[in-house]
Design goal:
The chain has 98 residues and is mainly alpha-helical. The chain has one domain. It is 74% helix and 0% strand. The chain is built from three helices and no strands. The protein has helices at residues 6-32, 39-60, 68-91. The radius of gyration is 15 Å and the shape is elongated.
Length: 98
């Protein structure tokens, strides 16, 4: 198996950064008693590749790190994302490995 393509690494980094910022904004809104970012949106960001940023936000910001139902869905999104990435790599559909 080769190395991940630079495009995949950049995409995961950008989506993860956006996800981390979304968690940060959601925490700020929660502290201020404002309208929050829906959990489904945070989970969708994780599903499309932002899960590394979500994991960092959960650890560093201590946001959404204790809510069991949220974490269950979060870890399912991680598994689905990694399974999809693996499937694409095996099918050689996209040049994600160089």
């Amino acid at each position: 198996m080769g190395r991940l393509s630079l495009y995949v690494i950049v995409a995961y980094t950008v989506i993860s950064l956006f996800t981390f910022i979304s968690y940060w904004l959601d925490k700020r809104k929660a502290q201020a008693g404002l309208w929050r970012i829906p959990e489904a949106n945070l989970q969708l960001l994780s599903l499309i590749g932002g899960w590394p940023g979500a994991l960092l936000a959960q650890s560093y910001l201590r946001h959404k790190s204790k809510k069991r139902a949220f974490l269950t869905v979060f870890w399912l999104t991680v598994l689905v994302n990694l399974a999809a990435l693996s499937w694409v790599a095996v099918q050689d559909v996209l040049p994600i490995f160089s």
